[in-house]
């Protein structure tokens, strides 16, 4: 379980750094073009690794379903998230995504019958309070929009189904590499379809910073991220995956501080502590329960 948690935290951190670099490149290009470059090159890297390792995903209905899964996540999650972000404010986006730790376990329970201890929901609620406090004082210009909020909520629901489907896909703990390869390939195909309608507008890669940013998006935000995320799904239930995702805004704040020089307020430490306590709640209760059992024996 510990390796799964570390893998997910790696996935969350590189994702948050990638979002900042992605936004910088989109200003010079377009969303569809950046996604095609990012996902297409990442798929090539993963298939090259498959060839070097002399392995490949089996040709089966499961593999086809895995490709289709890639169209939904990150494909559909990206589309809904970007469309919603264009209409509503950043605070609303952060708060709606903060509901993911509460929605994820419910979806997993309804779809695949995976149970979740009450402490997961309690921890999710505590973490949501931390996200709300962390976000409240960082209001951006712009106003909340119901249609935009609805699109963001749809993206969160898709992400919850994504984690649930990913849990099923990765139940064989040795398949995570194949699953990640097919998922990224499916997402690249979906991005290619979007680009046909949106047009091809590549950024200037003669600028060194653009090339380095794209390299990070390919190798870390996509290749490393999806390998780590599927590795985590092979070892952790959806409830813990969803709860651990509460750390996303913390990593996003840290990434913004490192890359953009964003200000860290003294109160931010207290808000991060709320999130940390929420994420740690199920683990601490299990530790205390196991310790009590050892003493009684």
UniProtKB/TrEMBL annotation:
* Protein topology in the membrane: Multi-pass membrane protein
Entry superkingdom: Bacteria
User: Where is this chain's protein located in or outside the cell?
Assistant: Membrane
Q: Where is the EamA domain?
A: 3-135, 148-281
> Which key words tag this protein in UniProt?
Membrane, Transmembrane, Transmembrane helix
Q: Which InterPro entries match?
A: AA-Vitamin_Transporters (IPR050638), EamA_dom (IPR000620)
Query: Can you tell me where the transmembrane regions are?
Result: 32-52, 64-85, 91-111, 118-139, 151-169, 176-200, 212-233, 240-259, 271-288
Residue ranges annotated as coiled coil are none
Report the protein name in the record.
DMT family transporter
Lineage here is:
Bacteria, Pseudomonadati, Pseudomonadota, Alphaproteobacteria, Hyphomicrobiales
